[in-house]
Amino acid sequence: MTTLDDANNVLKYWFSEQPIRLTPLNGRSPNEGWLVETIKNCFVLKKCVRNHDAEWLQYLEDLTDALLDHGFPIQPMMEAEDRRKTILFKEHFWQLRPYFEGRPYEMGNRSDEQEAIRVLKQLHSLKNLPKGPVNPNCELKNWITSPDETLSKTAYALKKVVSSKKAAVLLKVYERELMNIITLLNPSIYEALPHAVTHGDFHSGNLLIRNKKLAMVLDFDTADFRPRIYDAAISAFLLTRIKRGTFQLDIVKTIQFLKAYADDLSEYEWRSISAFIRLLYIPTGRYLTLLHTYTPHLLNWYIDWSFEALKSASNQLKEDWYLQKEMRI
């Protein structure tokens, strides 16, 4: 039986939906997804490979409900016949949400950028959101509190999937970057930074615009309770590039984005931005293993793509980078 057969069975027997068409959504993730078309409605079905953790997926259900209660633009999860929202079938978890139609976020569109900032600020300002367990897919804090151990896991996984020569080149850069990052962001500083429930992957592909408003935020797979500046840093890095397909920033716009997000960022928050961005692009052993197991065709692409991003961020966001053009803002 194929995965498509599994998807049909989940829809038919758990959600009582009779799809007339299932179209694969080819993302660059171990997850699998389908656009589901029925006679009356459209949905998105996801096979949750990336976060195969019942406790965390229950938290995602609770977080989704809480965000909806606050009026945040997130799609609800559909209930199955037994009222569950996360289905276990063939040793994997599945979730179904309504399909939302909107245009993708446009790089360089000032209105879209202002909307992204507005919604990001809204998310971080919401009170009494459930904090939940640590996201099993994210090892941000491990890089800071246990850098040697976390890097050794990356090294172990990397040496199994690339040549020894390539692994040595990559690990040399990862180690150098990690040593520099630790000088900017130690455990004490990390804990002292203002925390909030964060999205974790707030980029153009997860933002849909309708009637000039950011009407839907997709993919909370990397949500976690962590420093708010992590979200702002990643979003600024990905939304203020000069164009898609490059990691070259318009530094002036990057600083403007961050100042519009919060005009009271502390010195520690500013200094941590470069560190957080670079940590995002040092692969974890867990993620490399997931790619190798479920989407091996993406593995070499991901390793090369993340390495390019890491080098680009390192070159552009050196220490005190945010002060270099401050007079031009």
From TrEMBL:
GO CC term, one of those recorded: endospore-forming forespore
InterPro entries: Aminoglycoside_PTrfase, CotS-like, Kinase-like_dom_sf
Aminoglycoside phosphotransferase domain residues: 22-251
Name of this chain's protein: Aminoglycoside phosphotransferase domain-containing protein
